[in-house]
Amino acid sequence: MRVPVIVDDAPSPTTLPDGTTPTGAATTILAVRTALPPHRYSQDDLTELIGDLCLAPGAERTLLRRLHASAGVRTRHLALPIELYAGLGDFGKSNDAWVATGLDLGEQALTGALDEAGLAPRDIDLLVCTSITGIAAPSLDARLAGRVGLRPDVKRVPVFGLGCVAGAAGLARLHDYLRGHPDDTAVLLTVELCSLTLQQRDDSPANLVAGALFGDGAAAVVAHGRGTRGRDGAGPTVVATRSHLYPDTEQLLGWNIGASGFRVVIGAGVPGMVRRHLGADLRDFLAHNGLTVDDIGTWVCHPGGPKVLSAVADVLGLPDGALDTAWHSLATVGNMSSASVLHILQNTRETRRPEPGTWGLVLAMGPGFCSELVLLCW
After folding, report:
1. First CA to last CA across the chain, in angstroms?
2. Does residue 38 surpass a pLDDT of 90?
3. Strand, coil or helix: what is 220?
């Protein structure tokens, strides 16, 4: 296994085990930072309170309690104090809360990542901003521009609709951009306030699963096309990416949007899709880059839920502990949609940083139904 070499502030292409090099330049991740709301609750404390919101008075709570107990979540952060959710009432009020809290968390994540990278807001050339839990025009990135001091000529790409896959897909799109603009600095900002989409007086299994699983947060990644720019701790590098959209799966995951806002769609077939398709797609992607599953030393996997994580581990034949960072993220903050995989990447860089030359893989799945794979080298 060979290591990317940085010479004169620019990385040489990573050499693959078969002696070839991937097409295009590598993208260096300079910083990753997550921002969480201050309202933190244990799962045990939330169970009955969410039941009060979602269920009719006096309704049976056996399914609710079973879902909360089996979600793999111990604690979560919510956009608002839990006692304020009953007063939201309609989509307009929920979306207003998404804008207000999303701007605060987005600013924290963005400025925190820039500080870590040793950069200022005016250094950003491209800002990709993704969320699936609210809508705004002007978009969050436009509203943040004057607030944090972005340049007037900054390129902005607001993204809606990718959901849980957007953290990995957004990182891949930064890489695509930086291959053509290697001297630029590109930032991905994800803002997901999933709790604000919870439907009141909705006892559907999908809504109850969402109420047991999802948490709120924001995350930002700062990347550059030419090495570390002198910053200690930069990395890993993005080497290659692949997207895959599965036909006839549009009803498996997403939203039904109506007068009450975003009504979640979570099909029972999601783990089955992982088992049927992910193994072959991922192995083909790795083989294209001269690698196998056994070559991957670090897995940055979106924590879709216990059944999804178990399906990923089974279909890839991963050793015990390979997905520990994903399980830990799920337990401590829940599923934060697009922000989760970046939360896991941050934890990997800070607490489980691999040895130089270690291969890593970022993977996530989302509405479409689709998957996104990002090959890393540390």
Report:
1. 11
2. yes
3. strand
| Catalytic residue of the set 129, 164, 194, 377 | 164
**pLDDT tens track for 106-116:** 999 999 999 99
Residue 129 annotated in active site: no
Do you know the residue count of the chain?
378
For 258, counting Cβ atoms within 10 Å of its Cβ (0-12 exposed, 13-18 middle, 19+ buried), the class is exposed
Minimal CA–CA distance to 190: which of 346, 361, 326? Answer: 346
DSSP assignment letter at 15 = P
DSSP state of 319: P
Does the pLDDT value for residue 5 go beyond 80? no
Which range, of 154-168, 228-242, 350-364, averages the lowest pLDDT?
A: 228-242
| CA nearest neighbour of 302 among 237, 221, 372, 207 | 372
If one compares 253 and 132, the residue with the highest pLDDT of the two is 132
Whole-prediction pTM value?
A: 0.91
Cα separation of 184 and 178, whole Å? 7
Q: Output b/e per residue, 278-308; b: 16+ Cβ within 10 A.
A: bbeebeebbeebebebeebbbbbbbbbbbeb
State the number of CA atoms in the 13 A half-sphere of 151 facing the CB.
Answer: 11
